[in-house]
Amino acid sequence: MNVLIVEDEQRNANMLVRLLTELDPSIVVLQVLESIDSTVSWLKDNPMPQVIFMDIRLEDGLCFEIFQQVDVLCPVIFTTSYDEYALKAFKVNSIDYIMKPVRSQDLQSSLKKLEILQGKASVSDPIKDILTHLSSKEPVYRSRFLLPYKDGFITIKVDDISYVYSEQKITHIVNYKGDSFIVSQTMEELEEELDPRFFFRANRQHIIHIDSLASIQNHFNAKLKLILANDPTREVIVSREKAPLFKNWINS
Fold this sequence. Notes:
By secondary structure, this protein is α/β, with parallel strands linked by helices. It has eight helices and 17 strands.
């Protein structure tokens, strides 16, 4: 069995390789990749593996961006420390969702599911039950932030946020008055916490509110340039790959 591993922590990657080869010495680990970009490049240039073991939080973002940039045509087994991404994982041809630290018996169970699927059997009922349960739950998005301010705290309502940006690995939220506040969350965490009906991850550095847009302009190479109403000097570039997603978001 040819296996691809996507994991940005070397210790976890080494452990996964060891456990897999102990369970089945015939397993061949084709590559261990650490980022979204390297995984997309590898999948474009190589034959599809029989299964991918994939961490969710990688060094350059959430792994779900991979599925937006390239067709992944093999089963995926997610290995992660976070359980809040389960529903999203099963929407991108996942067959299992293993919580870290990965144990040998968990891997054995996942490989058994893979064998069943390769034998053309249907996905097991427990997975369908999980999907049904998670789909029936309304997602809860953040409504406010409590932030340190001077000698106390200040509350910032999500409705007052114009955009979010990251600079030198520090995340800032900016309100419509132009005031900027530092938050502890990463861009990836905020992307999950903010309601996607109103907020869009335009690129790695920016998440914008739909009401913050002053204009949308065509940019070179099929990209888009967004001008923000309360900060017209800030140009937010949407890549060619994300431009269709942005247009669908605006039209929804």
